[in-house]
Amino acid sequence: MKPATTETPATPDENDESVAPVDRASDARGDLSVVRDMLPYLRPYIGRISLALLLIVAAKLANLLVPFALKGIVDQLNVEPSLLMLPVALLLAYGAARIGVTLFTELRQVVFARVMARASREITLRVFRHLHALSHKFHLARRTGGVARDVERGGSAVADLLDWTLYTIFPTALEIVLVTAVLVWAYDWGFAAITLATLAAYTIWTFSITEWRTRFYRAAVEADTRANERAVDSLLNYETVKYFNNEAHEATRYDQNLRNLENARVKSQTSLAVLNLGQTVFIAIGVTAMMWRAAAGVTAGELTIGDLVLVNAYLLQLSAPLFLLGMVYREVKQALTNMERLFGLLDQRQDVQDRPDAQTLSVLRPTVSFEDVHFSYDERRSILHGVSFDIAAGGTVAVVGHSGSGKSTLTRLLYRFYDLDSGCIRIDGRDIRDFSQESLRAAIAIVPQDTVLFNDTIFYNIQYGRTDATRQDVEEAARAAHIHDFIMNLPDGYESEVGERGLKLSGGEKQRVAIARALLKNPAVLIFDEATSALDSQSEKSIQAELDRIQVGRTTLIIAHRLSTVMNADQILVMDGGRIVERGRHAELLAANGYYSKMWRLQQEERRVESSPLVELA
Predict the structure, then answer these.
(1) 429-461 pLDDT, tens per residue?
(2) Homologous superfamily of 31-346 in CATH?
(3) What phi and psi values does residue 446 have, to the nearest 5 degrees?
(4) What is the DSSP letter of 361?
């Protein structure tokens, strides 16, 4: 019998300079820590686990009877032909023992299948929920392809680890003990000594070489993750690749990751060959010594031919689990490495957390107040410097300013994607940190500047604003956003697929879907972040009137670049460099002849140039 020679592809040695450095965040968690974190998911299934273990013990006991039945059959057949009789009982016992081994093993699979699948699902779901609970800071730094790959590998490793440890390592160890005990009981310590010496040499060799090889697999996981990150990032941005004619450049970068993976597989297979060769040598020496001793016993008349067959059968039974044990140990170490990365995601700290006594926010027409708000994404660079303003209940405040002035940061802070460096944001006079994040965000809806849709139907993307909404509710929201007629003219209507990130729709169409989605949510606080930026002038006029209508009765914050869209706001704030430099109504700001007035004149001039007929130069 040969040892298993295949395994999950590995990557290069960590010392190989061609490999990206391994993420040390996962290394801090040891094997015991991984197992300890997994145990709570198994406690509800103690009964199933115990029953499965009993079935495994029954299968091993049945397997122990097979060589005895075979010995009896051979001994009874080893007589003069005239005296030969068919040992029916022994043949039936042999067949029953073989059936029992398979029956108990398969019943264990049936009993334990639910445990493996459920534990894997619950752990993966917990990681998925945790990832969504993490702050913007984590998601801005992550690479989608790498995180997805870690979750995928970690989820499958949960089932692998349970299967290998509980129902392979334990039964193998049990079988080794039982076979050794039978050899001592039926014969002498010589057979047991050879068995134990072979087992000790095999185990020491397997564990030491596998520990050495584990670093290859750790680096393997990292290289595979990096390759997946590169592929996903490139495919998501395929339009940009084509715009700049950089297909060859992307292929070269991806090939570098694949080259690392290729080198890793070569190193992995080379070291695996060393491991397999050593295992084979130790098993071969042990089997040869056992057969030599048994054959000598038969020659001396101390043992029968049946004894020789029994010893050989037990050797075959032992060699298989021994080879399996080496493979299992490799698989367990690899599963633990994958789960380190999965649980490493759970170790990511939630920067924004609810207070223990957080209350549920329930408002209809709230007031919103920013009080001396200071904030920075990076402590080395401040974004907001003492920003203060109020939005009256049901009122509308618009924030304008050049790019990078801090306008959109206000919306992220109101949603509490980040906590403030200092200052306070209040809703109806209460600090937003007093409320749960879930209830706070339930009270707010936003139409973002960069609308990204799910790769699903138009109906799903609008209904996402309120997942329990009826079809009539969705269609009414679409009509309010002036997109219903467009949808109905599509071949599949509301069931039309929008493509990945909504790329099958134009920028204006995506923005109308986003407006319909926000309207369907029916929020108490409404945010428009450049809500009409992707619309042409005619579409902007038609939707602006609708936006003005739906703002009535809702506390509204408008982030805008086009000043023509905020003329009717109760108050307009002009931001520059993270500070409010002007505030007032449209007419007041024009009369002040400051920042706002200059921006207004510049935009009016741009509009006149855009609307003027083109003059063909001779």
Answers:
(1) 999 999 998 899 889 988 887 788 888 899 999
(2) ABC transporter type 1, transmembrane domain (1.20.1560.10)
(3) -135, 145
(4) P
